[in-house]
Amino acid sequence: MATVSVLVPDQQCSLTRAFLVMLTSQGLLIPGLDDAVGGQERHGPVPLSLPELLLLIGLRDGSRSLSALVAEVADQTACEPEHLRDVLAKLWDRNLLIHARAKICDPCSEQIIAVSAASVTVEPSAVLAITTPRFFRLSQGKFEHIDHEGRIRAQLSAVELAAVSEFRQPLTAQQALDEHHRSCGLLALDESGFNTLVHRLGAAELLQRTDSQDLEVRSWLQGRLAISREGFKALNGLMRERVGEYEVSECKHEGRSGLKRVKVVSVQENGTIFPLALGMIVAYSKAYDGGRLNEHYAFHPDWLVRPSKVRALTQEPGIFLFSNYNWSHRHNLLVSRKVKQMSPWSVTIHGGPNTPKYEADCEAYFHANPDVDITVRGEGEVAVAELLTALVDVVGKGPLDFSVLRDITGISFRDGDAIVHTPERARIADLDSIPSPILTGLFLAYKGTPLGIIESNRGCPYSCTFCDWGSAISSRIRQFSLDRVFAELEWCAKHQVDGVMCADANFGIFERDVLIAEKVAALKKESGYPNSFSTNFAKNTTKHLKRIIEILTDVGVVTTGTIAVQSMDPGTLKTIKRSNIRLDQYDALATEFHKARLPLIMDLMFGLPGQTFMTFQNDLQECINRGVFPRMYMAELLVNSPMNEPSYREEHRIRAEPSPDGSRQFVVSTATFSRQEYEEMNGLRRLFVLGEVFGMLREVARFVRSETGVREIDFYERLRCDLRDDPERWPMLAFSVRALPAFLVSPAGWQVVIAEIKSYLIHVLSIEEDDAMTVVLAVQLAVLPSANRLKTPMVKLAHDYSSWHKAVVNAKEAGHHDDWPSFVPRLRDVGPASFSSAEHAQIGSFGLNPALFGVQYPTLTY
C-alpha cells in the first residue's frame, strides 16, 4: 500500500477514475473501505464539507500542483491548509490518489445519457427528503447521480451537493436553506439559486415529499437504527424505574436491620438484548442456600452499566460481575478500570468465553489488566454463588484479602503478587437447579425488546478445535426441562419480545426440538410473537431440521436453515477434528429445501489450519454447485479454544493478528497458508459475497461457465486478480468490491457496472458479443434493485433465460453439480421469450436486499 510520505507538495495528482462520494444520514463522506483483517474497515470514512468537495473537484482536474490547489481552496473557503493536506494524505493512503496522467479520463462517459428534467413546483410548506445512503460520482468537475439504467439524473457543483445534503433529514426548503447558509457561509447559494436547485431535484425524483406513499424517507437500515434507539431509550426509562424501586427498598431494609447491604452489579454491554448469562448467575445467587446471600447483598437491577454510571455505583465498595464476549470485552475492561479507580476496595469478577482459562494466558491477562481481581472458568452460576459466600466478611471491611477463595474450584485470583489457579470445576448436572432469570422477573425491564435469549440445553458433543462453546465442547449435552423452555417462550410472547434466539450449540439434534418449534409457532398464532427465531442448528444430523424450518416458516416466523459445514476439505476437517454430515445427505437436504422454497445457508470458515487457498476456492465452488449461499467467517483464535492450546498452535504454526479495534484475534497464517495467501482468500471472499451471495455477478458467472467451461469460482478469482492489478481499467467494479458490501446500495447506477462487465467478458475472456451476451446482461441488470429504476412490465429477449435457468437448476438437482454444462444447452441455443418482473420470483429470492433500495424487486437465486 502507498504511504503518505510519497506525496510531494509540488507534484500533480488526480483522483482515481471511479471516485464516489456518499450521502448518509450523518452527512457527506468518502466511504470506509472493507479490506482489513477481520472484515473491518482498514480505512474509516472521511467526512466532507464544502472545502473538501472543492478540493476533490480540483483533484479531478489534475492540472495544478498539490500545494497550489491547497492554497487556492484555503483562500476560497478560509479552511486551514493543514486540514486540507490531511485530507490529501487520507486519499493517498486509501489509494484514491494517483499521479496525474497526461489526459484525465472520466469513467465510462460515453455510456451515460444525460436526462433533462424540467423544473417542478414545490410548495413552501412541503417537507422534503432524499433517501440515503446514496452515491454521487465525480466526473467532469460535477457530482453526478446516475440511475439504474445509466441515465444522469443530476449534475451538481460542490456547493449544490453541499446544499442537497441538508435534505438527508426531512426539512422544508426554507429550513434546508437556513442550514445551508449556516454550513457554507458566504459561499452558500442565494435563495433564488437554492430554490431553483430544489425544483430541479424534484423533477429528477431525487427530492420527494415525505408524505408520498412511495417514499421511505429513511432507508431500511436507518429505520432499524431509529427503532433500536427508541427501544434503548425505553429500556433505560424502565431501568431507572427499577433503580428507584430498589433504592426505596434498600432504605427500608437498612432501617429495619441497621445494616447496609453490599451492592452486586451486573455489567451488560449489549444494548436491548437481555443478558441471559449474567441473569442466570444472579438468579442462582439469589436462591443459593435458601436465599441466604440476600441478607448480605443487594443485587442492583440496572444491567446497562456504562462508565458514566460507575461513580454513583461506587459510593461504597461493591462487587461487579462481567461476562466477557468478543463484542463486550473491551467495554467490560473499561468499566472494570473505572470501578477500581473510584473504589479500590470494590471487587471485579470476570468470566465468560473471552476470559482466558489456559494458565499462561490467564497470568498474562492478570498482568495486562490490573483492574481484574478474579476470573471464573467455565460455568459461572455455582462458582459466583460460592465466591459471594466467601467474600461476605471481606468486601466493605477494608483492604481485600482473597486468600479466603482458595477452596473454591474453577477460579483464578490475585493473592498479593501471585496469581492463584484453583482446580477445575465439574459442570452443573441438573440445569433446572438454576432458577430462570426470565421467569423470576429479573428481565421485566426488557419487555418489547428486539431480541430475547433462551437456552434449551448446554454442551456440545463435538471437539472442533476452532470452537469454544462456553468451554463445553466434547461434552455431554444437558437439557433444561421442556416445561421451563415453554414457560420462557410464553413469557417472551406475552411481553412482545420481537425475536427469540435459542443459544443451543446443536438445535435440532433432539426430537423434542420439533416440539419447541411447534410451541414457537403456536405462540406466534396466538399472540403475534415472536416474529423471528434464530439458533445454531445441529451439525451432523438433518433428521429434524426440515420439519423445524417448515413449522416456523408456515406461520411467518423468520428463520433460516443453517448447516455449519465450515469446510468440505477432508484434510482441513481432520486437522480441526471435525466430523461433518455426509455430502450426499446434505445434497438431499438442499434439494428438499429448494423444492419447498425454504431458505438454507451454509456456514464456511477461512483461515483454518489445514486449509489452503485452493481448498477454500473448492469450498466456494461446492456452494455454487449446490445452489446454497454461505455465511463466511474468518477463523478467529478464541482464547479458550483448543486451537489456542500452546502445543496445537506450535504444531500448526498458527499466527494471529488483532482486528483494527484490537478486540479480536484472527488467524492470518498457518503451516498450510501464508500471510499473503490469507490476503488473497480475504479478497476472494469479498468478491464472492458481492458477486455471488448478493447477486451482482451471479447470472454472469453462470453464463461464463456455460460459454467457456471455466468454473464460476475461477472466473471470480481471475476477476479479483485483474481488479487488483489494474483497478483503473475497471473502476466501478474495483470500487464495488472494496466498498459496497458494507452499504448495499447502487454505486452509480448499475448500468455503469454492467457496461464494465460487458467489456470484461469481451476483451479479457474473449466471449463473443452477441444476443446471448445481451440477454444475460439484461437479466443481470434487471435483478439488481435500486430506488429510481424504470419498472418495465415485460421485456422481449432473444433467448428464454427463465427456461435456461430452470434447466441449470434441474441438472444440479439431478446430481450434475460440477458438469451441468454438459447437460444444459447454451443460452444462445435457446429460443426467444418474454421476461417480466414477476419471473424474478420464479428464479429466486436471495441477493441484494431490495428493502435497502426503497423498492420491492425480487432477485435471482438457485
In words, what does this structure look like?
By secondary structure, this protein is α/β, with parallel strands linked by helices. 39% of the residues lie in helices and 16% in strands. The protein contains 27 helices and 31 strands. The strands form 9 sheets. It has a 7-stranded mixed β-sheet. A 7-stranded mixed β-sheet has the order 14-13-15-16-17-18-19, with helices on both faces. Strands 11-7-12 form a 3-stranded antiparallel β-sheet. Strand 26, helix 18 and strand 27 (629-634) form a beta-alpha-beta unit. Helix 1 (50-61) runs antiparallel to helix 2 and helix 8 (276-291) crosses helix 12 (381-390). The radius of gyration is 30 Å and the shape is globular. The model is unreliable at 1-5, 106-113, 212-227 and 840-862 (pLDDT under 50).
List the helices and strands and how they pair.
Blueprint: E1 13-15, E2 20-24, E3 27-30, E4 46-48, H1 50-61, H2 66-77, H3 81-93, E5 97-99, E6 113-114, E7 127-129, E8 134-139, E9 142-146, E10 151-156, H4 158-164, E11 171-172, H5 173-184, H6 191-203, E12 208-209, H7 220-257, E13 262-267, H8 276-291, E14 297-299, H9 310-313, E15 319-323, H10 329-342, E16 347-351, H11 359-368, E17 374-376, H12 381-390, E18 411-415, E19 418-421, E20 451-454, E21 457-458, E22 478-479, H13 482-494, E23 499-507, H14 512-527, E24 532-537, H15 545-554, E25 561-566, H16 570-575, H17 583-595, E26 600-606, H18 613-626, E27 629-634, H19 646-651, E28 655-658, E29 665-669, H20 675-693, H21 698-708, H22 712-725, H23 731-739, H24 750-763, H25 771-782, E30 794-797, H26 801-813, E31 833-836, H27 837-843
Parallel strand pairs: 6-10, 13-14, 13-15, 15-16, 16-17, 20-23, 23-24, 25-26, 26-27
Antiparallel strand pairs: 1-5, 2-3, 2-8, 3-4, 7-11, 7-12, 8-9, 9-10, 17-18, 18-19, 21-22, 28-29, 30-31
Helix pairs in contact: 1-2, 4-5, 8-12, 13-14, 14-15, 18-20, 20-22, 21-22, 21-25, 24-25
